[in-house]
Amino acid sequence: MQIKQQSEMMVNSMIDAYAKQKPNIPAAVWQDIKKLHFNDVYLKEVKKVFQENYTEAEVKDLMATVDKYGINAYKPKPAITEKLYEVGKNFGKSVGIQIQNRLKKLGY
Fold it and tell me: Does residue 78 carry a pLDDT above 60?
């Protein structure tokens, strides 16, 4: 599965969790929030981590390890895993803040 798809699934899961916590907010509001583009910054940060640690040719080789089911056999170096974890953690915090800000802006 590609990073963009994974991040979209994560965002949708977060929004669904917020929706369960706040059942008084109409479903249409949650659907509108799902249309926002949360993952642009995340994707740039992930790309930056790979660019800082791999050449363009190495990235192409890594992408070639994806099988027909979208499963990647690539196992990143521990230092890269740590950096990607931090990027993901910061992304999750950012999405939560953006959702809360959007709800406040809409009066919820």
Answer: yes
